Automatic annotation (TrEMBL), chain A:
<dbReference type="Pfam" id="PF03150">
    <property type="entry name" value="CCP_MauG"/>
</dbReference>
<dbReference type="GO" id="GO:0009055">
    <property type="term" value="F:electron transfer activity"/>
</dbReference>
<keyword id="KW-0560">Oxidoreductase</keyword>
<feature type="domain" description="Cytochrome c">
    <location>
        <begin position="211"/>
        <end position="336"/>
    </location>
</feature>
<keyword id="KW-0732">Signal</keyword>
<feature type="binding site" description="covalent">
    <location>
        <position position="82"/>
    </location>
    <ligand>
        <name>heme c 1</name>
    </ligand>
</feature>
<keyword id="KW-0479">Metal-binding</keyword>
<dbReference type="InterPro" id="IPR009056">
    <property type="entry name" value="Cyt_c-like_dom"/>
</dbReference>
<dbReference type="GO" id="GO:0020037">
    <property type="term" value="F:heme binding"/>
</dbReference>
UniProtKB/TrEMBL annotation, chain B:
<keyword id="KW-0732">Signal</keyword>
<feature type="domain" description="Copper-binding protein MbnP-like">
    <location>
        <begin position="35"/>
        <end position="249"/>
    </location>
</feature>
<protein>
    <recommendedName>
        <fullName>Copper-binding protein MbnP-like domain-containing protein</fullName>
    </recommendedName>
</protein>
<dbReference type="InterPro" id="IPR046863">
    <property type="entry name" value="MbnP-like_dom"/>
</dbReference>
<feature type="signal peptide">
    <location>
        <begin position="1"/>
        <end position="22"/>
    </location>
</feature>
<dbReference type="Pfam" id="PF20243">
    <property type="entry name" value="MbnP"/>
</dbReference>
Amino acid sequence: MKNSTGIQRLTWLLVSSGWLVSCQTTDPQAQPEVLFTQPANFPQPVYALDQNAPTKAGFVLGRALFYDGMLSRDGSISCAECHNQAYAFTHHQHEVSHGIDNQVGTRNSMPIQNLAWATNFFWDGGVHNLDLAPIAPIENPVEMDDKSSNVIAKLRKSSRYPPLFNAAFGSEEINGPRFLQALSQFMLTLVSGNSRYDKWVRKEPGGTLTDEEQAGLTVFRAKCSSCHAGELFTDNSFRNNGLFIQGSNDIGRAHVTELEEDTYRFKVPSLRNVEKTLPYMHDGRFYSLDAVLTHYTENVQKTQNLDPLLQQNGRLGIALTTHEQQQIIAFLKTLTDEAFLRDPRFVEP
Amino acid sequence: MRNYFARILSILLISFTFVSCHKEALDSIDPNAKNSVSIEFDNRVGDQKMVLGTTPYKNGSGETFSLTTFNYFVSNIALKKEDGTVVKFPNQYFLVRQADARTQTIQLTDVPAGNYGELSFMIGVDSLKSVGGAGDRTGVLDPTSYGEDGMYWSWNSGYLFMKMEGTSGSVPATANIDHKFWLHVGGYGGGWNGSAKTVNNLRTVTLPITNQATVRGNVAPVIHLFVDGLKLLDGPNKISLAATNSVHMPAAAIPLADNGKTMFQIDHVHNDKQ
């Protein structure tokens, strides 16, 4: 009995020290086995990791699927087409994403990062579980335009996938739940929590913020963090941030809930890697952070369901001086996580 | 005269009681015995057999139509014994498709012996399953398994609980040139973090089993339901295909969900010894 306790303690020590080492490592290639880590400054994940914990083989399979055009009707569009690692897995330099046959949708692709902490997915929150998210782009006629059942059929016929499914799930059977779980395993590992800001918060080496950046953080906390809350920089809510109604006249959250009060409400996005995720807003209408800050300061429109936080003290928008805007932008750039954006594990295999 | 009738009636009643007591004595229920119960969903349109294709039907609005698809999910089945105890069958989901006869009889296994006088089930897939992960969504719940016969909304994550599709000359060409109609019912009441926020079109059907399903070690009852698809159009809410021919969102499907609840009736039960 004593002996087994000793073994347990030793195991625990080994496991915990291994975890510490992996957290501290700066070379991602050195620790490829560590697939999902919760940064010390992050809250508990939302995703039920006990039901689908990423494994090395599951991650490898999910990554192969993520980069494979076979998931689209004509083989031309992979997930990565609209989710490019260098831009925090968004579609760069397109207001709205381009899909199959060069068709365009109505919304800008969202970053794929820190999804284990997300309570819903897409700008309107129409999907409640990460596992189910990939079906939406696969079956959307202007994105990948296939049937998920047909994608499964194509994978079964390929020579590449049966061994990958075998490695990940213990048999060569290719089915919907395995397909979706593998994609989740890959996406779950896309954790961005090593920006300069994170290191500063955690008091780690490299964690320095300039005076300008710290001033920006102070203004940010006072003026922006009601919505872009916590370490994920979003409160996961849906709000109308007073954009001009233009273009597709997208009603946002109401498209899903069919509730009048949700008209023009969109998800509050995370600001992690925001420097790289341009263009901004659900329809990609702003090409720079300056334009975003200008919107909040000067151009908030009193449209239906405008968020109360943007109409306080008899004024629309947020009172920010030009200097404060620049300070906020300086701070936001400290949320750029170069290690994440260049992590070789996430690159097309 | 009145006396004469009363006497006959009492004789009949006594003999009934006697017969039923007698039967009861012979047919004791073994508390450890189990058997299966099958439920047959016999889809019809009014008093006609339901056939997909060109067969013409007519609704209460006088509109002629034919059907190409008729599907519905059945889940959360419960059987109530004559003593009031309820046997539930959680985590069992069935998709009845008119295009596939094999799906039209479903089987519950390991049903405890007893006399069951009520059947209830949900039309659709409950909210708990509708927010669960992919690992829970096997068999008929696998959202990647439906092919062209989509029973899942990918953009508004959730199952279609019922769908009826077809063509009708009453669907104006301005709606679509092929005069097609799509009546899709879904919406499990999801919302922010699972709070009941969106439209909930889940409906529970409760049906008396008048002659009882008598499960015994050697009796596996078959409950035969008549399912009248016409009630989807001609239930408490009158649906005219000229006006309502493209329903793809939960709110618009509320009248259909209410109608769908009235489609089912138990016609008879086979309690044959095996």
